[in-house]
Fold each of these.
Amino acid sequence: MGGGKVTLLAALFLAGCNMDRAAHTAPQASEVRAEVVDASYRARLQAASCADAEDFTPAQTIEITATPLDPETFDGVKLDGLSFHGGWHLTSDEPNFGGLSGLAVAADDTLLAVSDNGAFVWINMADQGPSGLGAIAYMRNQRGRLLDGKSSADAEGLELAGGLALVSFERDHRVLAFDLERCGASANGTLVARIPEAPFGAGRKIPENNGPEALALYPADELVAGLEAPDGDRAIVGRIGEGTVDFSERL
């Protein structure tokens, strides 16, 4: 998608919230999901990403224009297990807005998204749709420097765990953790796991732009990633541990 534009398809109608400090930090995951990533490991990731809560930097507030999509546009479109409930075409004067991939819903009904430009984008939801306010913050590496170039900034998957935003990347295939709750836009991307070019079980090198598109927490205390590159007609799913990956699963 080009900068400044994105189409948002929502499977849920969401209630409103205020774009206060909470909307400029990581949305709070549910109590269940907060426990999925081991507490001691989560604490180490948080400490590496944000050493001092006083370093908190708010995200940049942006205006977002939301145009509802015509439901008739999707007549005849069949997606197993999904129903179209609402959608919007979003635009912003912010040049780096757009290219949104992973989406996560906050407890305060803010949507957090990641873009393939290496940014976090907050979208305020009110009256069952985007309210016109949002925020953007650019991702940083472990040294606190902004991610530079498509090879390092191509964020795709997003999951939340106890204040941490977990993000998967293509090209440089890896998963990083950001403590947005305590440090906001100052949070450093702490390495969770680096995915080898030819991970065990994949049988071949992962194409540059076919990496870990999907990222999710399973109830069985597992962080899993799905590769865009299939194995024949089956999806490749990897279990990600503390610095480890196993892509032997096929679905």
Note: Confidence is low (pLDDT under 50) at residues 7-36.
Amino acid sequence: MIRAEEAKHLPPPPPESVQEFVRSAEQLDYKAAVILGVVEGVTEYLPVSSTGHLLLANNFLGLDQEVAVTGKDGEQIFTMEKAALPVRVWDSVVGSQSQPPAEVPFTLKNAADAYVIVIQFGAILAVLFAYWKRVEGLITGMLTGKRESWQLGSNLIVAFLPAAVIGLLFNKFIEQKLFGVWPVIFALFVGGWVMLWMEHRHRKMVAKGLGNGTDLETLTWKKSLGIGIAQCFAMWPGTSRSMATICGGYWVGLSPAQATEFS
């Protein structure tokens, strides 16, 4: 038992938020890292939205809690964020830019979401290695002035731009409104039906001799833009980016292999 005079010299007990964080942070351990890594590895190369499945895995593991994060010294960690967005989307795009950022607590959910983003870098490297010959040929062709390589490279840039613009403009709105369990489940459900419908449509077009009339070297910038616009639907977490772009490729007349490679 501690005497009263001895208790005066003891450090104060940690605040409730710190204690809660310590219990919750134990869930973001090696076991959780392995589980999230397996989910990422299995879903990244399937048109089923790796991000959506990782968000659901975070919820299953209890990593989506708004619990304050502290450092090793017990001090709470803060981050700078912009103020909450207005209800209307356009006001959120225009008005939020002029609002000064505020200091807010860094939470376990923030850490888990950042972890989900970082581990996807491994999948990007894997794709680069898998298509290295194709990428090397594209770069070499562009450096040597090969017309087909320049056309494919410019088409990739055109297809990239719509998602880049939409992502920058609506980033905060998407994070606040769509990064939840039910929006992700809804997107997975709708995406599955869209994928089945597009596959059925593609088979009918092939049967009519209309499904494989375009190849990557002769793809026009307008069709590339159409694929890029299709990719924008993947801004909704749970909507597979590869599924959206492959469906866009189907729509403009690419074969499954060509649509997947362009994706």
Note: Residues 44 and 50 are 5 Å apart (CA to CA).
Amino acid sequence: TTVSTQDKISMVRRILQGLAAAGVARVVMMPDQAQITAQALQGLYPAAHGLPSIAWIDMRCQGTSEDSTTAAAALADLQAGAIIVLGGDGTVRAVSCGAQNTPLLPLSTGTNNVLPTFTEATIAGLAAGAVARGLVPLSSCAWRHKWLEVLVDDRPTDRALVDLALVRGRFSGARAVWSAEGLLQVCATRADPATVGLSAIAGAVRPVAPEEPRGVALRLDPQAASQIMAPVAPGLVLTLGVAQVETLLPNRPLTLEVNEPVMVALDGEREWSSGPQHRLGVQLRTDGPWILDARRVMAELVHRGHLKLTSATEGGKSE
């Protein structure tokens, strides 16, 4: 999918209006090479609630995912009440590497959007602001996302929030995995056939809900007797052969079969290469980042009376 720069600018403006309505006084933003955040502030007029003061993270962007990790770490050090993320699964993964225990509210603007949601930006601002201000307890509106710990020679090396895949070859190419060719193994923390991405392959075989304390691992072979169909990328539905299916349980390492040079893809993007000289493994962890559910936040705000400005009347009598 493609979300234009102008669309993202509009989203940031609406987020700020939502944060203002929630009573947030200060917002810290990261710079970006596309100048999205800077452009969002141009021509942004305060509504009835005014606008928060804006501060910037002191950092230089390199145009890589490390920018998101660096920004998240800076926000965690500032004890931010919540972090709103615009991106796909890969961006949320990068943010989670630096966010520590700061809750995240991911909004879909990426290619694979299994974890981020299509929440309206104004609502996202209201929800994140309510949590940041302590109007709603985190335990009532958030959950800890599962993640996959990648092991190289039995040492923790990297992570994925949604899926890990092994792809034949040594080169990252366009990074995003758009083809079934060379796809050897897929592990997923959640598996939903109604999503788009590599985890949809697992969803077509053995669905796993986000809140279930388990995951699924597949070994793929185009010649396998079991053939499935899955939407692995926007507009791309592929047929794949599944040779083996295993359940991932928390803190139980699974050895990955590597007999040739492979690229390790994390949350849909090729990240680094490995080969038979290393022992690759993965284990499911359940202590991942806190993910905010905007719907639950808004429902909790209603329940606690935070959206009620005056007493409603019914039949001439006050409630």
Note: The chain is about 20% helix and 30% strand.
